[in-house]
Design goal:
heterotrimer, A mainly alpha (45), B mainly alpha (399), C alpha+beta (297), B: 399 residues, mainly alpha, C: 297 residues, alpha+beta, Alpha-Beta Plaits, 2 domains, three-stranded mixed beta sheet, two-stranded antiparallel ribbon, 11 helices, 33% helix, 13% strand, globular
Chain lengths: 45, 399, 297
């Protein structure tokens, strides 16, 4: 027999958005990190 | 100590400058003022009634049509027409096409003001606006809601657009350091702004996904979000052409001759973009029509209305844009822009108002009060726009 | 239906009939499951006692059922009434149908609400919280049954809809309309049991009922179930709503949102890197992201 209980297909939305915010915060630093050291090394050589 | 004195002096300078700038300039008795001032006053009076006696006292909203002109036109349509800002910043900042550099500032300003006023118009329409901060302050996040998403995207996009525009303000206030810093944020905010625009333009379409049984099948589709996004691109492009033409007529004295000349070149480029996007949009519409096997619906009055929108206001202006681009005809392009804009307005109103509860015998027509308030919103936006462009270096390109 | 199921059903039907206002026995059986109401329109006599009870319980408009002649034309629920009873003339004679919020299992209104003011409780009723509501009326747009109603003529408007007497249920009472019904046309209970009772009635009287339980599948299933002697489209029900729970229609879009929000910026940054860097860009300002502000100046 089927049972009828609470189903929320968007239960994880909040967590997804949190993940997103942390991604953005890290992403800016990742891009900065990736673009900076490359330049310094060429200067050293 | 010295720096404190310097900062205080700088602060005093800015305050005195602002007071000076706030004074009105130019003649008072212009045609626009004579028309707009009474409308704005009337709109404010109507809003007083609305907040004392409820929405029903000034609007024709019913239980069957909970969203009327203020939502369907001001918010859903107004935001689509403000799409130019994200399109042009994408082209100039992300794709680095310098050709359109000189219209970035004016377009971003238009977009920012449109969001502030048309998004702000949402506050009149909310039944309990004093709770309007609830989706933001964290006591009740409706994560599952499309509207929740749109609220956040509107707010974030306004911040992004403001940062995009802020170098102009800094330049106006003569704050060189701030201007340099704000300009360094440009690419980041543009990327954020384009992404947010993509989502809230399509999100406005997603608002109507759950209204499936209530919207005429010719206007409801699972792909409404995609359609809204694609049409917002050409709506934005057409709006740039339209607004550019108007402001080049009105604010002629603020333009350098070179700027005026290159605007025509830009129009041809924008027309090309609009023609391509509109054609893509049209084929998308046709694909959905075939896939949903909707030919039975065509030979009805709703079907003719649909054909008018899709053929008359999408396909025709698409060809006009293409023809105007090919034959270097500014007049054809400008006419096409107006038709395309009307087409977008028609489409948004169809989805949100006209074809909503299409089977109900009682139709919704906006009341004169709703129309007055809508005009008030538009006019007050133009007032602010005029104030900004006559004071800030909006028409000059970056230096 | 197997023997055990049948016994259980009759037992439930029996207890429900005996229990009156007390629903302790029902709650213990499946404490974690949705409750709902089974409406047997063949039993309804159109007395509208439910309308009166509802109005009195919720301090709403109480209709003058004897004199107002409201059954003449079908009505909708309004900002004054959570529930209405309509009369339909069919080949089976006059049929009375009580309408109110259906309390969908996956409620479109609760999904639509940006502030969770419309709230699907764990027990099944969909309730409304005025402290959270911003009055956007998106619930009205989304509800497939057109249930939420708005007080357009109030400065402080409420969204008005049936709450399945959630406050009464908290106290262990049945919804007011169910308690007021003199003919057992309304049967309050756990959804599973209500479905079994409904099926049992159809099997036991195959000629009396159409073989459909409205609300079993409509809009993904609703808390209120209806039995009828005539096809449901003849008594004011929409039969074109589909079986998909309405939140599913926005599922793809909302799933795409986080993906787009992290995918597109990265894509745009990549495009920007591909675009011609040698051209003078008039201070495009990639300095913020790439951190080479000094280098470009």
């Amino acid at each position: 027999m089927d049972s009828f209980t609470y189903v929320n297909i968007f239960e994880t939305k909040g967590l997804e958005y949190l993940l997103l915010l942390s991604f953005w915060a890290l992403f800016v630093y990742l891009v900065r990190y990736l673009s900076k050291p490359a330049k310094k090394r060429t200067e050293e050589r | 100590m010295n720096t404190n004195v310097a900062t205080a002096g700088e602060f005093n300078r800015i305050v005195r400058f602002l007071i000076h700038e706030l004074k009105p300039r130019g003649p008072w008795l212009t045609t626009f003022n004579v028309i707009s001032i009474p409308v704005i006053v009337a709109g404010l009076v109507i809003l007083c009634f609305r907040f004392i006696y409820g929405l029903g006292s000034v609007t024709n909203l019913t239980q069957e049509h909970p969203w009327g002109l203020w939502l369907g036109f001001d918010v859903v349509t107004g935001v689509a027409l403000a799409g130019g800002a994200y399109v042009i910043t994408f082209v100039v900042y992300v794709m680095r096409v310098d050709k359109y550099q000189s219209i970035v500032r004016i377009t971003v300003l238009n977009g920012l003001l449109a969001y502030m006023f048309y998004g702000g118009a949402l506050l009149f329409d909310l039944g309990r606006p004093w709770n309007a901060m609830n989706p933001f302050i964290g006591n009740s996040f409706g994560f599952a809601s499309v509207l929740f998403l749109i609220c956040w995207h509107f707010a974030l996009y306004m911040v992004a657009a403001f940062v995009e525009f802020s170098p102009v303000i800094a330049e106006w206030l003569n704050l060189e350091k701030a201007r340099k810093f704000l300009k360094s944020l440009a690419l980041g905010t543009v990327i954020l702004g384009v992404t947010l625009s993509l989502l809230h333009q399509s999100g406005l379409g997603a608002l109507f996904l759950m209204a499936m049984p209530k919207i005429h099948p010719l206007w409801w589709s699972q792909f409404t979000p995609v359609l809204f996004f694609v049409s917002s691109i050409y709506a934005g492009l057409s709006m740039i052409i339209f607004e550019g033409t108007v402001s080049h007529g009105v604010f002629k004295n603020l333009l350098t001759p070179k700027g005026h000349h290159s605007f025509d070149d830009m129009v041809f480029g924008l027309a090309k973009g609009a023609a391509i996007t509109m054609f893509v949009y049209y084929v998308f519409k046709a694909l959905l029509f075939i896939h949903e096997k909707q030919w039975d619906l065509i030979n009805t009055s709703w079907g003719y209305w649909y054909l008018l929108e899709v053929l008359g206001f999408v396909l025709v202006p698409a060809f006009m844009f293409a023809f105007g681009h090919k034959h270097r005809s500014l007049n054809i392009i400008k006419t096409a822009a107006v038709i395309a804009l009307l087409g977008v307005i028609l489409n948004r109103l169809n989805v949100s108002i006209i074809c909503f509860q299409w089977y109900e015998p009682v139709r919704y027509y906006p009341s004169w009060q709703e129309i007055t308030v809508t005009l008030m919103v538009i006019f007050s936006e133009i007032w602010i726009f005029r104030w900004v462009v006559t004071r800030m270096p909006v028409f000059s390109s970056e230096h | 239906m197997d023997r055990r199921g049948f016994l259980k059903t009759t037992l439930v039907a029996g207890t429900a009939a005996l229990a009156g206002d007390d629903l302790g026995a029902l709650e213990l059986r499946h404490p974690e499951e949705f409750v709902g109401v089974l409406v047997d329109t063949t039993r309804c006599i159109g007395c509208r006692a439910c309308e009166v009870a509802c109005g009195e319980t919720h301090d709403l408009f109480v209709p003058d059922v004897i004199n107002d002649g409201a059954l003449a034309t079908p009505r909708k629920t309004s900002e004054r009434q959570y529930t209405v009873v309509n009369k339909y003339e069919t080949e089976q004679g006059d049929i009375f149908v009580k309408r109110q919020c259906m309390h969908c299992h996956q409620a479109a209104c609760a999904t639509a609400c940006p502030t969770e003011a419309m709230h699907k409780t764990l027990k099944g009723p969909v309730t409304w919280d005025g402290d959270k509501c911003i009055g956007c009326r998106f619930c009205m747009i989304s509800c497939p049954f057109d249930v939420p109603k708005f007080e357009y003529n109030e400065w402080n408007p409420k969204l008005v809809k049936c709450t399945m007497c959630f406050e009464r249920q908290e106290k262990g009472l049945k919804p007011a309309c169910v308690s007021a019904c003199p003919t057992d046309a309304l049967q309050f209970g756990v959804q599973v049991d209500n479905l079994e009772i409904a099926r049992h009635r159809i099997y036991a009287h195959p000629d009396k009922y159409v073989h459909q339980i409205y609300g079993e599948h409509e809009a993904g299933g609703t808390g209120w179930l209806y039995l009828s002697a005539v096809p449901f489209d003849q008594i004011g029900f929409r039969t074109d709503l589909g079986r998909t729970p309405y939140p599913e229609y926005t599922r793809e879009f909302l799933y795409a949102v986080p993906a787009i929000l992290f995918g597109v910026p990265a894509f745009l940054l990549g495009l920007n890197a591909l675009a011609d860097h040698d051209k003078p860009t008039g201070g495009m300002g990639s300095e913020f992201l790439t951190g080479d502000e000094e280098a470009e100046r």
